[in-house]
Specification:
15 helices; 6-stranded mixed β-sheet; alpha/beta; globular; 19% strand; Rossmann fold; glycerate kinase, domain 1
């Protein structure tokens, strides 16, 4: 049993959900026929084929689309995170800020609208959507400034709200999210290929549901702000806009049954479930009795870490064992340190093991990482811990609980050389947690 085994298991999960694996399964060109998602189209039957790719996996998804369609692509636009661009021949790439939108995010939203308005009813638009799209598109109402959007984004990311709640608010100050992209395409056929980065794979939440009917309302958005006591801190133009929506002075997002979606097809092509299954098989190949104990991980990172350690302590099955979880926790910021939810999770596991008096020699290897290669505003993917690292903590007098309280997991693990760093993976299906029990 080793940290390398845990890393290999994590990497196997990530590889299974990369666009190089997924896109060829859902986009093929045979002769004059394009199969995309669950539909087929004759090349001669459409006036133009356009590609819009948005999210952390956008460049890789567009690259695979180019490999399939080549010069049959009439026009393409890619919106992705800084340092995620790839060489493309038929698509133009724009990079922007994430997790906080920036000037490029606002400019990009306008370029996307311009790109969409050139379409006609006889065109085919292939949308490639992945996690990160919500922040990368700064498509706010005219009365809301970039400063307003950035302040709101910071508040939502730090308050502990989950992605469903965050995107409910985002959709209701936007011009493209919550299905509002679809009315911009002038009746063109739209087929979306979607890599899910949200628990439960809710289509209306992934990327804030650019091409999906929206069940949430302005009132729901207001309730999120009220739940987390953000009303007073939220920029006035945003609260004013949401209140105007509640009063019917601003149109709601298009709802299920709206005729605007009659020529839209949405297809989930990759998810955390796919990644977990691949991780499970890798663990079994490595000789572990492997099982997935939670595929819907969510909620507070510290709370979930305590529950996870409890499961590890109570494990009574065959050994060596590998226990896997997938999903995405949240962190309520209390200190001024540096880190991300995966690093916070592993650090909280260490604190729980220390609290329980579990001695080195009986400790599991624990790894938690983001499948996108990023964990919070750091260069790390996540972190890991092992018996040897616990011994080094005890030897140098480090107090894990102090770092946990200050949300400073990054600097804790940096001192131990226990940060998981992969760089951009060109995909995004939330997180994978690996525990190896000797």
């Amino acid at each position: 049993m080793s940290v390398q085994h845990a890393i290999d298991i994590f990497n196997a999960g990530v590889e299974a959900v990369k666009p190089t694996r997924l896109i060829p399964q859902y986009l093929q060109l045979t002769g004059n026929t394009i199969a995309v998602g669950q539909q087929t189209f004759e090349v001669d039957g459409v006036s133009g084929i356009y590609v819009l790719s948005v999210g952390k996996a956008a460049a890789a998804m567009a690259l695979e689309a180019e490999k399939v369609l080549g010069d049959r692509i009439t026009g393409g636009l890619v919106v992705t995170k800084y340092h995620h661009a790839l060489p493309l021949q038929y698509c133009t790439t724009i990079e922007g800020g994430h997790p906080l939108p920036d000037e490029n995010s606002v400019a990009t939203a306008k370029k996307v609208i311009t790109f969409l308005k050139q379409l006609h009813a006889n065109d085919l638009l292939i949308c490639c959507i992945s996690g990160g799209a919500s922040a990368l598109l700064g498509d706010v109402a005219a009365s809301i400034s970039l400063d307003d959007l950035q302040q709101l984004s910071s508040l939502l990311l730090q308050c502990g709200a989950d992605i469903h709640e965050i995107n409910t608010v985002r959709k209701h100050i936007s011009t493209l999210k919550g299905g509002r992209l679809v009315p911009q395409v002038n009746g063109a056929q739209v087929v979306s290929l979607i890599i899910s980065d949200v628990p439960g794979d809710a289509l209306s939440v992934i990327g804030s549901g650019l091409t999906v009917p929206d069940n949430s309302t302005f009132m729901d958005a207001f309730k999120v702000l009220r739940k987390y006591d953000l009303i007073d801190d939220c920029p006035l133009p945003i609260t004013r806009y949401i209140i105007e929506g509640i009063r019917g002075q601003v149109p709601e997002t298009p709802k299920p049954g709206d005729a605007v979606f009659n020529r839209v097809s949405n297809n989930i092509i990759g998810s955390n479930h796919v990644a977990l299954q691949a991780a499970l098989m890798q663990a079994q190949r490595s000789g572990y009795n492997a099982s997935i104990i939670n595929s819907q991980l969510d909620g507070d990172a510290e709370t979930q870490a305590a529950l996870f350690v409890q499961q590890l302590v109570n494990y009574s099955g065959a050994k060596p064992a590998c226990l896997l979880m997938g999903g995405e926790t949240t962190v309520a910021i209390k200190g001024n340190g540096k880190g991300g939810r995966n690093q916070q999770f592993v650090l909280a596991c260490i604190c729980e093991l220390v609290k329980r008096g579990i001695l080195p020699g009986n400790l599991p290897v624990i790894l938690s990482g983001g499948t996108d290669g990023t964990d919070g505003p750091t260069d790390a993917t996540g972190a890991y811990i092992s018996n040897e690292l616990i011994l080094s903590i005890q030897g140098n007098g480090m107090q894990p609980s102090d770092y946990l309280e200050n949300n400073d997991a990054y600097n804790f693990f940096r001192q131990l050389n226990a940060l998981l760093i992969t760089g951009p993976t060109q995909t995004n299906v939330m997180d994978i947690v690996v525990a190896l029990i000797p």
